[in-house]
Amino acid sequence: MKQPVSDEWIVVMNSSAARVLTSTPEPHHPAEIAFEIEHPRQKPQDVMADKPGRSFSSGAAGRRSALEPHGDLGHLQDVGFAKELIDRLEQHRQAGEFETLTLVASPRMLGVMRDTMPPDLAQKVTRVISRNFAALSIPMMQEKLSAVLARH
Question: Superkingdom, according to UniProt (predicted)?
Answer without folding.
Answer: Bacteria
